[in-house]
Amino acid sequence: MRTAADNARRPRPDLDDVSEVIGASRLSSIRFRAERFVRRRPIGLALTAGLYAATGLVGMIDGGHWPTVRHELETLHVTTANAIGFRVVAIQTDGQSALTDDEVLLALGVNENTALPFLDVQAARERLMENPLVEDAAVRKLYPDRVTVHLVERKPFALWQHDGKVQILAADGTAIDEFRDSRFAHLPLVVGPSANLKAQTLLGALAAAPTIKEQTYAAVLVAERRWNLRLRSGIEVKLPETDYGAALARLEALQAKQNLFAKWITAVDLRSPLRTVVKLTPEAAALMAEADKAAVKARKKAGQT
Predict the structure, then answer these.
(1) pLDDT of res. 225
(2) pTM of the shown model
(3) Hey, what domains does the chain have and what are their CATH numbers?
Protein backbone atom coordinates (compact mmCIF):
# COMPACT_ATOMS: atom_id res chain seq x y z
CA MET A 1 0.00 0.00 0.00
CA ARG A 2 1.27 3.44 -0.93
CA THR A 3 1.47 6.04 1.70
CA ALA A 4 0.44 9.64 1.31
CA ALA A 5 4.13 10.58 1.18
CA ASP A 6 4.67 8.23 -1.78
CA ASN A 7 1.78 9.76 -3.64
CA ALA A 8 3.11 13.25 -2.97
CA ARG A 9 6.54 12.33 -4.28
CA ARG A 10 5.23 10.68 -7.45
CA PRO A 11 5.19 13.19 -10.35
CA ARG A 12 1.80 14.11 -11.86
CA PRO A 13 1.22 12.59 -15.30
CA ASP A 14 2.16 14.92 -18.09
CA LEU A 15 -0.75 15.88 -20.29
CA ASP A 16 1.67 15.63 -23.21
CA ASP A 17 1.80 11.87 -22.65
CA VAL A 18 -1.82 10.89 -22.48
CA SER A 19 -0.93 7.17 -22.31
CA GLU A 20 0.50 7.72 -18.86
CA VAL A 21 -2.83 8.97 -17.56
CA ILE A 22 -4.04 5.99 -15.60
CA GLY A 23 -7.52 4.88 -16.44
CA ALA A 24 -8.05 7.56 -19.09
CA SER A 25 -10.93 6.79 -21.40
CA ARG A 26 -10.92 7.62 -25.11
CA LEU A 27 -13.08 10.68 -24.48
CA SER A 28 -10.78 11.90 -21.76
CA SER A 29 -7.82 11.37 -24.05
CA ILE A 30 -9.35 13.62 -26.68
CA ARG A 31 -10.10 16.27 -24.06
CA PHE A 32 -6.55 16.15 -22.75
CA ARG A 33 -5.13 16.56 -26.24
CA ALA A 34 -7.37 19.57 -26.88
CA GLU A 35 -6.32 21.17 -23.59
CA ARG A 36 -2.69 20.59 -24.44
CA PHE A 37 -3.14 22.14 -27.89
CA VAL A 38 -4.84 25.25 -26.54
CA ARG A 39 -2.42 25.53 -23.65
CA ARG A 40 0.73 25.22 -25.67
CA ARG A 41 -0.11 26.90 -29.00
CA PRO A 42 -2.21 30.09 -28.54
CA ILE A 43 0.51 32.33 -29.90
CA GLY A 44 1.00 30.08 -32.89
CA LEU A 45 -2.70 30.12 -33.65
CA ALA A 46 -2.81 33.90 -33.47
CA LEU A 47 0.21 34.24 -35.71
CA THR A 48 -1.21 31.77 -38.18
CA ALA A 49 -4.55 33.58 -38.28
CA GLY A 50 -2.78 36.91 -38.68
CA LEU A 51 -0.66 35.49 -41.48
CA TYR A 52 -3.69 34.21 -43.38
CA ALA A 53 -5.48 37.54 -42.86
CA ALA A 54 -2.46 39.54 -44.03
CA THR A 55 -2.03 37.25 -47.03
CA GLY A 56 -5.68 37.70 -47.97
CA LEU A 57 -5.46 41.49 -47.54
CA VAL A 58 -2.30 41.72 -49.66
CA GLY A 59 -3.96 39.56 -52.29
CA MET A 60 -7.00 41.84 -52.40
CA ILE A 61 -4.82 44.94 -52.66
CA ASP A 62 -2.58 43.47 -55.37
CA GLY A 63 -5.61 42.25 -57.26
CA GLY A 64 -7.32 45.64 -57.07
CA HIS A 65 -10.26 44.25 -55.08
CA TRP A 66 -9.68 46.10 -51.81
CA PRO A 67 -11.61 49.28 -52.70
CA THR A 68 -14.63 47.17 -53.59
CA VAL A 69 -14.37 45.08 -50.44
CA ARG A 70 -13.89 48.18 -48.28
CA HIS A 71 -16.90 49.86 -49.88
CA GLU A 72 -19.02 46.78 -49.23
CA LEU A 73 -17.95 46.75 -45.61
CA GLU A 74 -18.60 50.47 -45.16
CA THR A 75 -22.07 50.22 -46.74
CA LEU A 76 -23.07 46.95 -45.16
CA HIS A 77 -25.66 48.70 -42.97
CA VAL A 78 -27.21 50.37 -46.03
CA THR A 79 -27.26 47.12 -47.98
CA THR A 80 -28.92 45.35 -45.07
CA ALA A 81 -31.58 48.09 -44.70
CA ASN A 82 -32.34 47.97 -48.43
CA ALA A 83 -32.59 44.18 -48.34
CA ILE A 84 -35.34 44.30 -45.71
CA GLY A 85 -37.45 46.88 -47.56
CA PHE A 86 -36.15 50.36 -46.63
CA ARG A 87 -34.79 51.36 -50.05
CA VAL A 88 -36.11 54.79 -51.15
CA VAL A 89 -38.35 54.12 -54.16
CA ALA A 90 -40.43 57.31 -54.37
CA ILE A 91 -40.06 61.07 -53.77
CA GLN A 92 -43.20 63.19 -53.52
CA THR A 93 -42.81 66.95 -54.03
CA ASP A 94 -45.24 69.76 -53.27
CA GLY A 95 -44.76 73.34 -54.48
CA GLN A 96 -42.19 72.47 -57.15
CA SER A 97 -42.46 74.72 -60.18
CA ALA A 98 -39.22 76.20 -61.50
CA LEU A 99 -36.92 73.79 -59.66
CA THR A 100 -36.00 70.76 -61.81
CA ASP A 101 -36.23 67.12 -60.69
CA ASP A 102 -32.46 66.77 -61.01
CA GLU A 103 -31.92 69.74 -58.69
CA VAL A 104 -34.23 68.17 -56.09
CA LEU A 105 -32.56 64.74 -56.30
CA LEU A 106 -29.09 66.27 -56.09
CA ALA A 107 -30.01 68.27 -53.01
CA LEU A 108 -31.61 65.26 -51.33
CA GLY A 109 -28.62 63.06 -52.11
CA VAL A 110 -30.95 60.23 -53.15
CA ASN A 111 -29.90 57.53 -55.61
CA GLU A 112 -30.93 53.96 -56.41
CA ASN A 113 -29.17 52.62 -53.31
CA THR A 114 -30.34 55.11 -50.69
CA ALA A 115 -31.75 53.54 -47.51
CA LEU A 116 -34.44 55.61 -45.80
CA PRO A 117 -33.23 55.12 -42.19
CA PHE A 118 -29.84 56.62 -43.06
CA LEU A 119 -31.09 59.62 -45.09
CA ASP A 120 -30.18 62.87 -43.29
CA VAL A 121 -33.26 65.02 -43.91
CA GLN A 122 -31.80 68.05 -42.11
CA ALA A 123 -28.74 68.06 -44.36
CA ALA A 124 -31.00 67.57 -47.39
CA ARG A 125 -33.09 70.60 -46.38
CA GLU A 126 -29.96 72.71 -45.92
CA ARG A 127 -28.78 71.77 -49.42
CA LEU A 128 -32.18 72.72 -50.84
CA MET A 129 -32.05 76.07 -49.05
CA GLU A 130 -28.70 76.82 -50.73
CA ASN A 131 -30.56 77.10 -54.04
CA PRO A 132 -31.55 80.77 -54.50
CA LEU A 133 -34.82 79.66 -56.06
CA VAL A 134 -35.92 78.05 -52.77
CA GLU A 135 -37.39 80.33 -50.11
CA ASP A 136 -38.31 77.50 -47.71
CA ALA A 137 -38.27 73.70 -47.70
CA ALA A 138 -39.31 70.76 -45.54
CA VAL A 139 -38.07 67.19 -46.01
CA ARG A 140 -39.70 64.23 -44.25
CA LYS A 141 -39.34 60.46 -44.23
CA LEU A 142 -42.40 58.33 -44.88
CA TYR A 143 -41.60 54.75 -43.89
CA PRO A 144 -40.86 52.31 -45.27
CA ASP A 145 -39.66 53.70 -48.61
CA ARG A 146 -40.78 57.29 -49.40
CA VAL A 147 -39.53 60.87 -49.00
CA THR A 148 -41.80 63.91 -49.08
CA VAL A 149 -40.52 67.38 -49.99
CA HIS A 150 -42.53 70.59 -49.49
CA LEU A 151 -41.09 73.58 -51.35
CA VAL A 152 -41.81 77.30 -51.26
CA GLU A 153 -40.16 78.75 -54.34
CA ARG A 154 -39.30 82.35 -55.05
CA LYS A 155 -41.28 83.55 -58.07
CA PRO A 156 -39.43 85.35 -60.91
CA PHE A 157 -40.36 89.00 -60.55
CA ALA A 158 -37.99 91.09 -62.67
CA LEU A 159 -34.67 91.09 -64.49
CA TRP A 160 -31.74 92.90 -62.86
CA GLN A 161 -28.85 94.26 -64.91
CA HIS A 162 -25.66 95.15 -63.05
CA ASP A 163 -21.92 94.65 -63.40
CA GLY A 164 -22.31 93.51 -66.98
CA LYS A 165 -24.70 90.63 -66.27
CA VAL A 166 -28.44 90.08 -66.08
CA GLN A 167 -30.05 88.04 -63.32
CA ILE A 168 -33.59 86.93 -62.52
CA LEU A 169 -34.96 88.62 -59.42
CA ALA A 170 -37.49 87.47 -56.85
CA ALA A 171 -39.90 90.00 -55.36
CA ASP A 172 -37.80 90.27 -52.20
CA GLY A 173 -34.77 91.35 -54.23
CA THR A 174 -32.98 88.00 -54.13
CA ALA A 175 -31.10 87.10 -57.31
CA ILE A 176 -32.43 83.70 -58.33
CA ASP A 177 -30.29 82.80 -61.31
CA GLU A 178 -28.51 84.11 -64.38
CA PHE A 179 -30.87 85.15 -67.17
CA ARG A 180 -30.47 82.43 -69.80
CA ASP A 181 -34.03 81.41 -70.57
CA SER A 182 -36.24 83.34 -73.00
CA ARG A 183 -39.28 82.36 -70.90
CA PHE A 184 -38.40 85.26 -68.59
CA ALA A 185 -37.83 87.85 -71.33
CA HIS A 186 -41.23 89.40 -70.61
CA LEU A 187 -40.18 90.45 -67.10
CA PRO A 188 -39.46 94.15 -66.47
CA LEU A 189 -35.79 95.12 -66.48
CA VAL A 190 -34.25 97.18 -63.67
CA VAL A 191 -30.73 98.54 -63.97
CA GLY A 192 -28.27 99.66 -61.31
CA PRO A 193 -26.21 98.39 -58.37
CA SER A 194 -29.05 98.67 -55.83
CA ALA A 195 -31.97 98.39 -58.22
CA ASN A 196 -32.83 94.91 -56.95
CA LEU A 197 -33.60 96.30 -53.48
CA LYS A 198 -35.90 99.08 -54.70
CA ALA A 199 -37.56 97.40 -57.67
CA GLN A 200 -40.59 96.14 -55.78
CA THR A 201 -41.74 99.63 -54.80
CA LEU A 202 -41.32 101.00 -58.32
CA LEU A 203 -43.05 98.08 -60.02
CA GLY A 204 -45.89 98.35 -57.52
CA ALA A 205 -46.38 101.98 -58.53
CA LEU A 206 -46.21 101.06 -62.22
CA ALA A 207 -48.96 98.49 -61.71
CA ALA A 208 -51.29 101.42 -60.91
CA ALA A 209 -50.35 103.05 -64.25
CA PRO A 210 -50.93 100.21 -66.74
CA THR A 211 -50.35 102.27 -69.90
CA ILE A 212 -46.96 103.45 -68.68
CA LYS A 213 -46.09 99.96 -67.46
CA GLU A 214 -46.89 98.46 -70.86
CA GLN A 215 -44.68 101.02 -72.59
CA THR A 216 -41.75 100.62 -70.15
CA TYR A 217 -39.01 98.15 -71.06
CA ALA A 218 -36.40 99.25 -68.48
CA ALA A 219 -36.04 101.29 -65.30
CA VAL A 220 -32.65 102.77 -64.44
CA LEU A 221 -31.81 103.70 -60.87
CA VAL A 222 -29.93 107.00 -60.99
CA ALA A 223 -27.37 107.62 -58.23
CA GLU A 224 -29.21 104.99 -56.18
CA ARG A 225 -31.89 107.62 -55.42
CA ARG A 226 -34.45 107.95 -58.21
CA TRP A 227 -35.65 106.20 -61.37
CA ASN A 228 -35.54 106.98 -65.07
CA LEU A 229 -37.92 104.94 -67.21
CA ARG A 230 -36.94 103.91 -70.73
CA LEU A 231 -40.03 103.54 -72.92
CA ARG A 232 -40.27 101.34 -75.99
CA SER A 233 -40.72 104.46 -78.13
CA GLY A 234 -37.30 105.72 -77.00
CA ILE A 235 -38.66 108.33 -74.62
CA GLU A 236 -36.99 108.73 -71.23
CA VAL A 237 -39.22 109.53 -68.25
CA LYS A 238 -37.52 111.13 -65.27
CA LEU A 239 -39.28 110.37 -61.98
CA PRO A 240 -38.86 112.24 -58.66
CA GLU A 241 -37.09 110.67 -55.70
CA THR A 242 -40.30 110.34 -53.72
CA ASP A 243 -43.99 110.00 -54.50
CA TYR A 244 -43.36 108.74 -57.98
CA GLY A 245 -46.72 107.04 -57.84
CA ALA A 246 -48.37 110.47 -58.19
CA ALA A 247 -45.96 111.41 -60.98
CA LEU A 248 -46.84 108.25 -62.90
CA ALA A 249 -50.55 108.97 -62.46
CA ARG A 250 -49.99 112.44 -63.95
CA LEU A 251 -48.15 110.96 -66.91
CA GLU A 252 -50.88 108.37 -67.38
CA ALA A 253 -53.47 111.18 -67.62
CA LEU A 254 -51.35 113.17 -70.12
CA GLN A 255 -50.95 110.14 -72.32
CA ALA A 256 -54.69 109.46 -72.28
CA LYS A 257 -55.56 113.08 -73.22
CA GLN A 258 -52.75 114.08 -75.58
CA ASN A 259 -51.16 110.81 -76.78
CA LEU A 260 -47.87 112.21 -75.57
CA PHE A 261 -45.77 109.21 -76.58
CA ALA A 262 -46.69 109.63 -80.25
CA LYS A 263 -45.21 113.13 -80.37
CA TRP A 264 -41.64 114.01 -81.30
CA ILE A 265 -40.17 114.08 -77.85
CA THR A 266 -37.16 112.42 -76.26
CA ALA A 267 -37.81 112.97 -72.57
CA VAL A 268 -40.52 113.77 -70.05
CA ASP A 269 -39.36 115.32 -66.81
CA LEU A 270 -41.74 114.72 -63.89
CA ARG A 271 -39.36 115.63 -61.08
CA SER A 272 -41.32 118.78 -60.24
CA PRO A 273 -44.81 118.18 -58.85
CA LEU A 274 -45.96 121.57 -60.29
CA ARG A 275 -45.08 121.18 -63.97
CA THR A 276 -44.25 118.64 -66.64
CA VAL A 277 -41.30 119.39 -68.89
CA VAL A 278 -40.84 117.69 -72.26
CA LYS A 279 -37.74 117.63 -74.43
CA LEU A 280 -38.22 117.61 -78.19
CA THR A 281 -36.26 115.52 -80.65
CA PRO A 282 -33.72 117.50 -82.75
CA GLU A 283 -36.01 117.25 -85.75
CA ALA A 284 -38.98 118.53 -83.80
CA ALA A 285 -36.87 121.29 -82.28
CA ALA A 286 -35.74 122.37 -85.77
CA LEU A 287 -39.30 122.39 -87.03
CA MET A 288 -40.40 124.37 -83.99
CA ALA A 289 -37.60 126.88 -84.62
CA GLU A 290 -38.63 127.26 -88.26
CA ALA A 291 -42.23 127.67 -87.23
CA ASP A 292 -41.26 130.36 -84.74
CA LYS A 293 -39.25 132.22 -87.41
CA ALA A 294 -42.13 132.02 -89.82
CA ALA A 295 -44.50 133.34 -87.18
CA VAL A 296 -42.21 136.29 -86.45
CA LYS A 297 -41.94 137.15 -90.12
CA ALA A 298 -45.67 136.90 -90.51
CA ARG A 299 -46.23 139.29 -87.62
CA LYS A 300 -43.71 141.77 -89.00
CA LYS A 301 -45.26 141.66 -92.41
CA ALA A 302 -48.68 142.13 -90.96
CA GLY A 303 -47.45 145.14 -89.01
CA GLN A 304 -45.97 146.76 -92.17
CA THR A 305 -49.14 146.44 -94.16
Answers:
(1) 92
(2) 0.58
(3) 12-74 (no CATH), 85-153 (3.10.20.310), 156-285 (3.40.50.11690)
